[in-house]
Amino acid sequence: MRKRAIVILSGGPDSSTVAYWAKREGYEVHGLTFDYGQRASRAEIDSAKRIAEGLGIPLKIVDLSALKEVYAGATALCDEGMPMPSAFEPSLIVPFRNAVMLSIAVAYAASIGAEAVFYGAQGSDAPFYPDCRREFFEAFERAARLGTGTSIRIEAPFHDMKKSEVIELGAELGVPYGLTWSCYSGGERHCGRCESCLNRKRAFEEAGIEDPVAYEA
Amino acid sequence: MRKRAIVILSGGPDSSTVAYWAKREGYEVHGLTFDYGQRASRAEIDSAKRIAEGLGIPLKIVDLSALKEVYAGATALCDEGMPMPSAFEPSLIVPFRNAVMLSIAVAYAASIGAEAVFYGAQGSDAPFYPDCRREFFEAFERAARLGTGTSIRIEAPFHDMKKSEVIELGAELGVPYGLTWSCYSGGERHCGRCESCLNRKRAFEEAGIEDPVAYEA
């Protein structure tokens, strides 16, 4: 029997590459994506669907849009009344979001008998986003093992790679980056101005790979 | 300024007593309740609302009913096709449910500046339900601190009390137990036969306090 894993798939370049990587590693991959009331939910979920379809894996879409209220006033990613910054600011943090997603992923893993949860947290985000840090997900793994009585693993396989290195790996794996979505703003096209668009542009440039998405700016 | 805390309030006797206790301890209490697709969601949320109203605290109700699908086939609490046991069986475990609730509670605490999350986990359930164990919630607290960069506390203040002792304390605090809901089955009245009804009956008997709810059996 093939080993089974959950991949938290937002439809962005990092998580899409994690999904391709996990399949190549021999896992039976189950994608999991969330509408947590983020501005870009429509575009992200649409991307996650297309990536899952292209990779030939099942995708479960979980409606957590009620979290919009939990996060009201706390983050620009969910509150359209807040300005969208072009560089890191605390208003870009969605507090404890990765834990919310990981906890549901662990619940799902326990339900379907998966041995691991993979997510796309990146070391380059770790100085700014505490729930992208290795010490966080290692502590969460411990809580997950104790809280389920299993030996489940929580891993961020690209944590120690640069974003440009993830893109290089993904290009080898055939990730269709034109289908991925990075922009926080939730328009029809990538805005090209938010922190996430700028990080994406920079990573493709550093990798020397052409970014196939169209930007407004 | 009064210290602020989140109480995860299911509308059952334990969590209702936690809410009354936290208010007496001087906290500005914010209740948080979840529809996670459980059979008894209507009754539980109705109870949580009445308890919050009686105590004069705000209550946020978070719709996680999409979890019904995540938990399909995994637990009798969410899957009406599965038999409802009268004594502990693994099908009563909702995998990692307390972590899902705690992670959203921590997110909410970070959003509104609360210093603690209280939940009603009980040591007497700990042998059966791994996410009621002290080692679990202590590990989760560590993950929460690392994942938010705060010194948030996660506490189960009645973890070391018997359920009957919780009832005794609640009676002193004036908890209106007639408004609380324990039954897993989600009928019009408490079934009196499921594990949760039987635990409740036993606790009131041991405390020598009359249980004000009506049972079918």
Task: Walk me through this protein's architecture.
The structure is a homodimer of 217-residue chains. Chain A has 217 residues and is α/β, with parallel strands linked by helices. Chain A has a single domain (4-207), classed as Rossmann fold (3-Layer(aba) Sandwich), CATH 3.40.50.620. Chain A has 7 helices and 5 strands; from the N terminus they run E-H-E-H-E-H-H-E-H-E-H-H. The first copy, chain A, has helices at residues 13-24, 41-55, 67-70, 97-112, 134-148, 163-173, 195-207, and strands spanning 4-8, 28-35, 59-63, 116-118, 153-155. The first copy, chain A, has a 5-stranded parallel β-sheet with strand order 3-2-1-4-5, with helices on both faces. In chain A, strand 4, helix 5 (134-148) and strand 5 form a beta-alpha-beta unit. In chain A, helix 1 crosses helix 6 (163-173) and helix 6 crosses helix 7 (195-207). In chain A, 54% of the residues are buried. The A-B interface holds A 60, 62-64, 66-67, 69-74, 94-100, 102-104, 106-108, 110-111, 130-131, 133, 135-136, 139-140, 142-144, 146-149 and B 60, 62-64, 66-67, 69-74, 94-100, 102-104, 106-108, 110-111, 130-131, 133, 135-136, 139-140, 142-144, 146-149.
